[in-house]
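Minimal example, chain plus NDP.
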Amino acid sequence: MAKRALLTGVTGQDGAYLSEFLLSKGYEVFGVIRRSSHRGVEDHRLRWLGIAAKVRLLDGDLGDLSSLLRITQDVQPDEIYNLAAQSFVASSWRQPILTANITAVGVANMLEAARIAAPGARFYQASSSEMYGLIQQPMQNEKTPFYPRSPYAVAKLYGHWITVNYRESFGLHASSGILFNHESPLRGIEFVTRKVSDGVARIKLGKAKELRLGNIDAKRDWGHAKDYVRAMWMMLQQEKPDNYVVATGRTTTVRDMCRIAFTHAGLEMDEHVVIDPAFYRPTDVDVLLGDASKARATLGWAPKIGLEEMICEMVDADLKRVRTEPAI
Ligand code: NDP
Ligand code: GDP
């Protein structure tokens, strides 16, 4: 019989790529989708990958335990991937309570649904390198102390520890993936890589003249979402649940990432980038650099797609998208 996977956050970047990956492995994929008045557009990423018809979408919300319980009871999944979150750091200062309710308490809701309705299911929690925040070691691994620097990171820290606690308290097969930033043409437009690839495409096609950014000295360890969803699945195939860092081991400034994008489009970055204090954060994470040696050794995981290849793929996808978008 085909294995069943239940994904929250199925409409997001990782939900789309993970669905594609699991379908290719023969899984039946079920996704939680929240009700919206914009019915018909929420699954745009699944449609972009050509898999919308193959993913079964079920109405629910991470803030509503009753919906998660009902869905988990009905689906009886073998694997649960909890990817849903208010995932944008900058928004977490503007909506700190919502971020806590969904990104932190929402994890407890999903764990409770699993514990009560499908205790044998394997559970993946989408934890984040943002938890390292003000870094305590030059390279961060599973043993590095955390120092969150945003309401988002504080909420993710709760999600991480409640996952560890449910593993230890109830014997759930619950793993926490501490993933460093990962991007793709399906990344949300508000995140810096996608904002840059979209901005470059607009400038190249004459639809914009400048690109306004904040702290371009910040450094991130950027990988490709396609590589990172594979690591999520690998964690759940282990006999024992655990915590794993997933990262490339290379860190790059926003400035240098941006230069790759402009150069790929044949443009001069310095003629178009404008620094705008509106995009600075109350506290920022200056640098992240992950040490994924445990994932390499235990899971046999390694990234396949490098930064240059990924940024060029994103610029090319946005050039195509901007070229064909309606004029209004
Ligand atoms: P996205 O922002 O693309 O997707 C977030 C998903 O969560 C969307 O499907 C969204 O639904 C859903 N969601 C938000 N609120 C709720 C809610 N109340 N109930 C149900 N669903 C909800 O994130 P990514 O795919 O990039 O990331 C996946 C996960 O991994 C997130 O938890 C993120 O915080 C975490 N993470 C991501 C990293 C990255 O670099 N991408 C790095 C480390 C961790 P809708 O479409 O309706 O908005
Ligand atoms: P994050 O690491 O989850 O916060 O991912 P983002 O892509 O949102 O931000 C990565 C880094 O880019 C952070 O240090 C931001 O401060 C920095 N940055 C600089 N300018 C911008 C911008 O205009 N938008 C965003 N989203 N980030 C920016």
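The domain at 192-220+250-288+305-323 is CATH 3.90.25.10 (UDP-galactose 4-epimerase; domain 1). The chain has a mean pLDDT of 98.
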